[in-house]
Amino acid sequence: MQSLTENIPKCLLPISGKTIIEWQIDTLLAVGIEHFTIVTGFQSVSVEALLRRRYANRAHIDTIFNPFFEVSDNLASCWLARSVMSSEFLLLNGDTVFDEEVPRQLLSFCSAPITLSMSYKPVYDEDDMKVQLDARGWVKHVSKNLRHDQVDCESIGLLAFREHGPQLFRSAVEEALRDQARLKSWYLSVIDELAGRELVDACAIPHHLWCEVDFPPDIPIAETFLKERYQDELVQKYLFVTESAETDQASGVER
């Protein structure tokens, strides 16, 4: 994505009239989530300005700046945000857009300490975060480096932490970052370790409800996805207004 993100972070890429982070926040607001912690890095001032402009009176949003973004990966971002991991929360990547049904399904899933949302597809490429499931359907391993015969599905970059899951994850992140060699690790490496202790369940999400933006060709795919979902929403609103008008007309009520 370097050609598109040379001057702006990926989460500020415009897709169908809004940036990726706006699509994410608006979708989560629609399902009742109002408190957000955003870990910023490259061009953090631009991200913070957008959040203030769009959500000053709509949501409680805190930002945490990662000054090591050029030499670290998202495990370090989680370490910087570990102080807010004291109660149930969702954790998501900054490059995935999704339908409202995705967080609804994840939040209504069983009460495992940690639940990883995943999806199936016929073929997995090198950049996919691949997932291996055990006999119960829980996560056994999650890594980009799983062998082809180990892969059952892929992580879509959205996880739920419940009960003692937040403390488990926080402790594991703190322990992992004591090893300087893991500064460039993904947080899913910690999830992989916790999965080995049978703590991570998997919630299947249909592929047509989400889209990850990893490469330039993903942008028109995301635009098509969002356009279809947005049009469906407009149609539903139109039908509601039409039905309300017909009901009012039949009952003689004026509005």
Write a compact overview of the structure shown.
With 255 residues, this protein is of the alpha+beta class.
3D structure, described in words:
This protein is of the alpha+beta class and 255 residues long. It folds into 2 domains: 1-65, no CATH class; 86-212, Alpha-Beta Complex (Spore Coat Polysaccharide Biosynthesis Protein SpsA, Chain A). The chain is built from 7 helices and 12 strands. The strands form 4 sheets. Strands 5, 7, 8, 9, 10 and 11 form a 6-stranded mixed beta sheet that branches. The longest helix is centred in the last third of the chain and has 34 residues, at 218-251. It is globular.
SSE diagram, text form:
Elements: E1 14-15, E2 18-19, H1 20-30, E3 35-40, H2 44-55, E4 60-65, H3 74-80, E5 89-92, E6 96-98, H4 101-108, E7 114-119, E8 130-133, E9 139-143, E10 153-161, H5 165-176, H6 188-195, E11 200-204, E12 210-212, H7 218-251
